[in-house]
Amino acid sequence: MSLTEEDSHRLQQTSHPINERSNLTEQQLTKYEAWKNQAGMAQIKLEFIDFDHEVKLSMEHLSEADKKLIGETKDETKNPGEPKKKKFRGQNQKHLEINARSSSNINDHQLCYFVVRGGLEKCPYQSNCKHSHDLTNYLSRRSEDLRQGCYMFDVYGQCPYGILCRFSQSHIDPITGHNIINPGSNQKYLEAMNKYPGLLKHLLRRKKYDYNVADRLVKMANKQITKANIAKRNNPPEVEEKHHDDTDVGEK
């Protein structure tokens, strides 16, 4: 593989010392000392560090789409008044679009989690909540149901999705938007033992769950374990000594 003149010149520069301590400024020396003590930084000798190096993007290794994005960013610098456009995209490039299409998000007014699951009185933030509490407004703007009859409500007597359900005509009050519960159907099944409610899941994720009872029990158990270990250390079990005769040694 043949090297260009620029590459060969750069290789020649990196293979020979380019700095002398006496020619460096105080700012460059201070920067070098900071690099030396920084975790994860390669330990390179002072004379081989190029303080004037600029990172340049090689256009020949970019795709056509990325080259187009770079051209758009250059146009943005010329017209600073225009809104900024999207830069290079990552793995979650469509998460904003998916959230915008969410059934709980209409015209950028996302419904409150607590209002959807339990009603306005369940929201701990009340008037300070950043999400919408207006169920009637949501009802007037939401899209039509896919079909009549909700399987969750017909089988269990309650739909956990409430007003967000796409089959909610059978279990949503059309005026208030509250979720209807049928206690008769609720008695026909038993929930799994390892299932926990949504509010508990919310508290665990937010790290707001009260562990006072568990912490108190753990402290009590640790005290009992410590006492048992001290007692075992002070009163070691007696080991029976085995006496061997001379006739026991070797083969009989």
UniProtKB/TrEMBL annotation:
Compositionally biased region (Basic and acidic residues)? 1-10, 68-83, 239-252
Query: A GO term (biological process) for this protein?
Result: mRNA processing
State the Gene Ontology terms under molecular function.
Answer: RNA binding; tRNA dihydrouridine synthase activity; zinc ion binding
Q: Where is composition skewed (Polar residues) in this entry?
A: 11-25
Which stretches of the protein fold into C3H1-type zinc fingers, per the record? Answer: 106-136
Q: Where does the C3H1-type domain lie? A: 106-136
Instruction: Name the source's superkingdom.
Output: Eukaryota
What the entry lists under PANTHER family is as follows:
TRNA-DIHYDROURIDINE(47) SYNTHASE [NAD(P)(+)]-LIKE (PTHR45846:SF1)
Record region (Disordered): 1-25, 68-93, 228-252
Q: Which InterPro entries match?
A: Znf_CCCH
UniProt keyword Membrane present: no
Q: Which keywords fit this entry according to its UniProt record? A: Metal-binding, mRNA processing, Zinc, Zinc-finger
Key word Zinc-finger present: yes
Protein name, UniProt field: C3H1-type domain-containing protein
